[in-house]
Write a structure and sequence with these properties.
It is built from 12 helices and 2 strands. Helices cover 77% and strands 1% of the residues. The chain has 2 domains: 8-65; 78-312, Orthogonal Bundle (MetI-like fold), CATH 1.10.3720. The chain has a two-stranded antiparallel sheet. The chain is mainly alpha-helical and 316 residues long. It holds the Pfam family BPD_transp_1.
């Protein structure tokens, strides 16, 4: 019997050794394969971006063979249909900038005030409850915001502004601002929370009130993150599509009147792609010229956000 027990123990030890060897081999394989797999995934992302840029450049170049560059970027008339088609992009740029400006007028003060409250005044319990609720706004589909602007905000504004057209740039601008409040509030609150408590305690020890500490110590110290959140929010507003497509109409007039219908660059792309633009026509290639302009706008805004973050970053 003792010999049988000894043999069983030896067999169990051999199985354990074999199992450990298999586990070690599997780990070695994973350690070898995973970096290569991750590298392939990263390369696919980069190649996709390069492919998008090359597509935009080639199709935009084809458009500028037919429409002069200067005429496109200085023209105030956009009539893509008809015999004497005209392709001036200024009406679309005006619509995009006006809607983004209105959105930032709504989002920056409300988002910044919310961030100051969450960072400096709210208790930990209140912060944990309010911040997720605020961020729920970011998860609502933009088409829902579009119908909210069309069916609720516009009729409400028309009761105060009689001259407001049923489709206008004001109501989608306001709703876009509501949509990006969570972005401004969340990023700004993160920047303020990263300011060391010792700076607050030092200011309080010198006799400053909590309001003075918030505005004269915390906000300046977190300025790089706050400004970066503003720039990213502007970039988000410039690229918004569904809200302006539904609520701002499709008027291509070059105007800065907030009560009138205006069209943004994204809304123009949606309109033309949803219509009968035959492939190879000037109207078809105008989509890529507008898309390239939009791409440059958002790229510049993102680069500006990164520059501001690096330039004004405070290290403690």
């Amino acid at each position: 019997m003792p010999e049988v027990t000894t043999n069983v123990k030896k067999a169990n030890v051999r199985e354990l050794i074999k199992k450990n060897k298999n586990t070690v081999n599997m780990h070695k394989i994973l350690e070898t394969v995973m970096p290569k797999l991750l590298l392939v995934i990263a390369i696919i992302s980069v190649l996709t971006t390069i492919g998008i840029i090359l597509t935009l450049i080639t199709e935009t170049f084809e458009f500028f063979k037919r429409v002069p560059f200067v005429e496109f970027y200085t023209g105030t008339v956009l009539k893509p249909l008809g015999e004497n088609a005209q392709f001036g992009i200024l009406p679309l740029i005006a619509g995009t900038l006006m809607s983004s400006l209105i959105a930032m007028c709504v989002a920056i003060p409300i988002g910044l005030m919310s961030a100051v409250y969450l960072s400096e005044y709210a208790s930990e319990r209140v912060r944990k409850a309010l911040k997720p609720i605020l961020e729920v706004l970011a998860g609502i589909p933009t088409i829902v915001y579009g119908f909210f602007a069309l069916t609720f905000v516009t009729p409400l504004l028309r009761s105060f502004i009689p001259g407001l057209e049923p489709s206008n740039i004001l109501s989608p601008g306001i709703v876009m601002g509501i949509m990006i409040i969570p972005m401004v509030a969340s990023l700004s609150e993160d920047a303020m929370s990263s300011v060391p408590k010792s700076m607050r305690e030092g200011a309080l020890a010198l006799g400053a009130t909590k309001l003075e500490v918030s505005w004269k110590v915390v906000v300046p110290a977190a300025m790089s993150g706050i400004i970066a959140s503003f720039v990213l929010a502007i970039s988000r507003a410039i690229g918004e599509t569904m809200i302006v497509t539904i609520a701002s109409g499709s008027s291509k007039n070059f105007t800065f009147d907030l009560t009138q219908s205006m069209q943004t660059m994204t809304a123009y792309i949606v309109e033309v792609t949803g219509g009968d633009a035959p492939a190879g026509s000037t109207l078809y290639y105008s989509l890529y010229a507008v898309a390239m302009t939009l791409f440059v706008f958002t790229l510049v805004m993102n680069m500006l956000a990164q520059y501001i973050s690096r330039k004004f970053r405070e290290e403690y």
